[in-house]
Amino acid sequence: MPPLAFKPDSSFFEKIALGAVGSRHVAQDLERLGHQIVELEHGAMDTKLWKDVKRKRVHILHLVCKVCGLRVESRAKKEAELSMSHTFSVHERAWDFGMVDTDVVAFPVCKKDKDQEKQWYISRFNCQTSYWHERNRVQWQPQGKVDYIRVGQFKAVPHDNASTKGVTEGSETSIVWKSRFSRRNGFVKEPLN
């Protein structure tokens, strides 16, 4: 990764908000199935940034069931896909760092509510001084069912594709597993325990 390649603040916060909405949706879905979910990573269901407290290079899964110990990593997406950020050269930045085969990765899909999206701009220019300020208010809506896949199942199948995001998105690598998503309602024969 190039040094000092950071996402712009707006993109970074959008991804944090998307992740928080997705984690909340996963927690509600698992509670509907009988689990008692709590945050394992403090702030997984909120947009709070922990700059001084959170240790770098330590991965803590997002959610855990108080009853059975099921550990869940929530990876909210804007579209239905099985993809995760990954770094091939730094072990601590691998997609599965800190996870065991029985852990679960949840993929909630959340869309922007176009009716609730509001953009606001103000600009001023006076002599040689200019001012520009913008706001973008987005309301995320969870869509459909959450897909749950065990880490061991991901490891058993090589990822299909890898692509590097641009420098403005942190130059991360995104790995994707080939997948198909049903558009029909159905039932899972082996629910998560």
Briefly summarize what is shown:
By secondary structure, this protein is an alpha+beta fold. It has helices at 9-32, 151-156; strands at residues 37-39, 63-65, 71-74, 82-86, 104-112, 118-126, 129-137, 140-150, 161-164, 173-177. A hairpin with a 5-residue loop joins strand 2 (63-65) and strand 3.
CATH topology: Trna Endonuclease, Chain: A, domain 1
Low-confidence stretches: none
Task: Give, in order, the helices and strands.
Answer: HEEEEEEEEHEE
Tell me the quaternary state.
single chain
Q: For the CA atoms, what is the radius of gyration?
A: 19 Å
Query: Which strand order spans the largest sheet, edge to edge or round the barrel?
Result: 1-2-3-5-8
Tell me how many strands there are.
10
Write the CATH architecture name.
Answer: 3-Layer(aba) Sandwich
Q: Shape, please?
A: globular
Q: Classify the secondary structure makeup into a structural class.
A: alpha+beta
What does the largest sheet look like? 5 strands, mixed
Task: Quickly count the helices.
Answer: 2
Q: How helix-rich are the residues, as a percent range?
A: 10-25%
Walk me through this protein's architecture.
With 193 residues, the protein is α+β, with helices and mostly antiparallel strands. It has one domain: Trna Endonuclease, Chain: A, domain 1 (3-Layer(aba) Sandwich), CATH 3.40.1350. Helix content is 16%, strand content 32%. It is built from 2 helices and 10 strands; from the N terminus they run αββββββββαββ. It has a 5-stranded mixed beta sheet with strand order 1-2-3-5-8. A hairpin with a 2-residue loop joins strand 6 and strand 7. The longest helix has 24 residues. The protein starts with 8 loop residues before the first helix and ends in a 16-residue tail after the last strand. The mean pLDDT is 80.
